[in-house]
Amino acid sequence: MIVREIIAKSVLAKSQIYDYAINPYVGCSHSCRYCYAAFMRRFTGHKEKWGEFVDVKINAPELLAKEIKRKRRGRVWVSGVCDPYQAEEKKYTLTRRCLEILLENQWPVTIQTKSSMVLRDIEMLEQFKDIEVGFSIATADEKIRKLFEPGSSPIKERIHALDVLHQKGIPTFAMIAPLLPGTDGLIEELSGKVDHVLIDRLNYFYANRIYTENDLEWAKEGSFFIQTAEELKKGFERKGREVRPGPAFRGGVYER
Ligand code: SF4
């Protein structure tokens, strides 16, 4: 892993999903094979493969402290094109220090991660008036997880982290996207630990090679996605969990 410290020009960026996004890092050690954020390589001039470099915006908290005074209050997505709790966060604590500033100003926050390191900050998260923490959990099968998300926390750790957060009264959600094979048991495992679930297909094509090399091409088919997504949706709804539609959910049904 090539880690570089960099000086960023800004950190509180406009987002198409929420009002703003904060990305304290460029690159992501979780190295998910389907990662849509891999396009960042082009913008940053990196020749390394996605997952093999991380640029650390060492001035992110100082920048945020200034930018938050100038911008209109809005919901902040932490992060968007990197995982805020990837390995380098342990050393650099940029996410933690940015959250401290958001807390001081009580801006609403949505954290999305695949790392149980978020529990390190739980005492701070409890002090927000408006916060939610989501875990991306696209499979329940560790073998599949290792193939597609080699640098991320094991599934059981993520589910445990959701449980701890939920028990503390912090709103939680699970993002089952991109829906991967091996979801058996997810409904039972997650139902008491999340407030809502998002199911979607997203970017299978980025991981074409993994599907081909592991005889998993059937799991890229629209029929696999539609059937599994519908089963999960019905199962979560039976357990009283809200299922929020992603882009592949149109007119009340999953398509593609
Ligand atoms: S955790 Fe998110 S940003 Fe990081 S590699 Fe995986 S999909 Fe990409």
Topology:
Elements: E1 2-6, E2 12-14, E3 20-22, E4 25-26, H1 40-44, E5 53-57, H2 60-70, E6 76-78, H3 88-92, H4 94-104, E7 109-113, H5 122-125, E8 131-136, H6 142-148, H7 155-167, E9 172-176, H8 186-190, E10 196-199, H9 208-213, H10 222-238, E11 242-245, E12 249-250, E13 253-254
Helix pairs in contact: 2-4
Iron/sulfur cluster (SF4) binds at residues 28, 30-32, 35, 37, 82-83, 114.
Please explain how this structure is put together.
By secondary structure, the chain is an alpha/beta fold. It has two domains: 1-110, no CATH class; 114-256, Transcription Regulator spoIIAA, CATH 3.30.750. Helix content is 33%, strand content 19%. It contains ten helices and 13 strands. The strands form three sheets. The chain has an eight-stranded mixed β-sheet with strand order 2-3-6-7-8-9-10-11. Strands 1-5-4 form a three-stranded mixed β-sheet, with no helix packed on it. α2 packs parallel to α4. The chain starts with a strand and ends with a strand. The mean pLDDT is 93. Residues 28, 30-32, 35, 37, 82-83, 114 line the site of iron/sulfur cluster.
* Shape estimate: globular
Which small-molecule species are bound to the chains here? iron/sulfur cluster
User: If strands are numbered along the chain, what order do they take across the biggest sheet?
Assistant: 2-3-6-7-8-9-10-11
Number of helices: 10
Structural class, by secondary structure, is alpha/beta
Can you give the mean pLDDT?
93
* Count of individual domains: 2
